[in-house]
Amino acid sequence: MNEIPPRRTLPRLDESLLKHLPPFSKLERREIRTILDQATSRRYEEGVAIFDEGAPADRFFMLLDGYVRVVRITPTGDQVTALHIPAGQLLGIAKAIGRDSYPATAMTATESIVLSWPARLWDTYVADYEGFSTETYNTVGNRLGEMNNRVVEMATQQVEQRVANALLRLINQTGRKVSDGIEIDFPITRQDLSELTATTLHTVSRLLSGWEKRGLVQSKRKRITVTNPHALVEISQA
DNA sequence: ACATTAATTATGT
DNA sequence: ACATAATTAATGT
Question: Is A47 near strand C, with its CB below 7 A from some atom of it?
Answer without folding.
Answer: no
